[in-house]
Amino acid sequence: MLEVIFLGTGGGRFATVTQKRRTGGIRVISAGSDEVNMHIDPGPGALIYSLEMGLDPQKIRAILVSHAHLDHASDVAVLIEAMCHATTKKRGVLIASKSVLRGNDVCEKAISRYHQAMPEKVFEAEAGLGFEIDGINILACKAVHSDPDAIGFRFETKAYGGFAYIPDSEYFADVSKFYSGLRLLILSVLRPSGQPWEGHMTTDDAIRILDETRPEMAVITHFGMQMIARIPEKEAERTEKRTGVPTRAAFDGMRIIFGEEIHIGRMGEKMRKEQKDLSSFFG
Ligand SMILES: [Zn+2]
Ligand SMILES: [Zn+2]
Fold this sequence. Notes:
This protein is α/β, with parallel strands linked by helices.
């Protein structure tokens, strides 16, 4: 079983600088072992929230960065140092877009050469390229954003099927080519319905994407200030009603258990087995 843990659910400039929602990214770990330990999009707070939540950053084995914007990449250097045990070991894998590693016309690179030399392996990812990390097949997927090199990530497990993360992106025509056939789709819905912004996702875009990709479950995250004001849970409800895809709004500290079934709970909270025990206790 895998656990998908939200060290942040905020996105965009104002949610980031106010920390109205945290911006630490997403950790994926294998339940009860150190076999899988990946961190996706370490924005501001990734190190601190990781330590605070008891998710030892020195156990990270892979860091994935979708694009070079601050709310996705600010803490990547310090997480690389943690992954490499305070620079004493060449260790782990870094998978990142070209913009993150080398920069492009609109973004400076997000990681210095000094830090890029620390992981055991560094992969420059573009849509369509695949990697295998600790038994999970990772496919870099298309995204359409103001950083033209932005990529999403699709994770395929042998036992439980796939889940994916779409970073900042607007809707695009071949979205189902990259993100269909999934059990869980995580979408970065920066803005609520009716507030479009080029290169970003609104609830309306999320609805279109879900209509075409039809995952078993959807989770929306990466909320900007307008989305927070409109209450993400309500936008999730509206999305579920329109698409029929069960949709939840992520919250800081949310933990998804991804196994034969998909369960959602809170970090630090006892999950399924304990809940079952409780019901028999009260039953
Ligand atoms: Zn963002
Ligand atoms: Zn961005």
